[in-house]
């Protein structure tokens, strides 16, 4: 959800990579439903494994509780977002998680993008 919001809201200002330390085989259908409710289609997305190469190529790494399973490289900016896990939840339980993620992504975009509107591409892998 975070990567989808970031891609949707930041456009080409931020390059997004989405991956997880232990990704599911498929995107949770209830997450697909909850995101569709806000106009973002993630039905075709495929979960990917977070690699050390993706982290090395990124400026900012946002984790969601992956702890020691996520690669760490000095000099990178790491943010760990503590959020409820949507796994096994229905759309009703996912909506508040989705809304919290949207709020955090909007704040992140404000922090990362310059106010003078010059283009800056940041690569962000999301992991879970």
Mean pLDDT reading: 87
Sheet with the most strands? 4 strands, parallel
Structural class: alpha/beta
Low-confidence stretches: none
Radius of gyration equals 14 Å
| Bulk shape | globular
Q: What is the number of strand segments? A: 4
Helix content: 25-40%
The end-to-end distance, rounded to whole angstroms, is: 11 Å
Describe the structure.
By secondary structure, this protein is of the alpha/beta class. 34% of the residues lie in helices and 13% in strands. It has four helices and four strands, in the order αβααββαβ. A four-stranded parallel beta sheet has the order 1-4-2-3, covered by helices on one side. Helix 1 packs across helix 4 (91-112). The termini are close together. 27% of the residues are buried. The model has no long low-confidence stretch (mean pLDDT 87).
């Amino acid at each position: 959800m975070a990567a989808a919001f970031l891609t949707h809201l930041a456009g080409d200002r931020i390059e997004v990579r989405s991956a997880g330390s232990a990704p599911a085989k498929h995107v949770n259908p209830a997450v697909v439903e909850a995101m569709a409710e806000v106009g973002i289609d993630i039905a075709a997305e495929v979960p990917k494994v977070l690699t050390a190469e993706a982290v090395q190529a990124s400026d900012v790494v946002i984790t969601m509780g992956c702890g020691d399973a996520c690669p760490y490289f000095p000099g990178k900016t790491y943010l760990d977002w503590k959020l409820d896990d949507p796994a096994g939840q229905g759309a009703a339980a996912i909506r508040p998680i989705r809304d919290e993620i949207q709020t955090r992504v909007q704040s992140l975009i404000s922090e990362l993008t310059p106010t003078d509107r010059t283009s800056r591409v940041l690569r962000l892998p999301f992991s879970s």
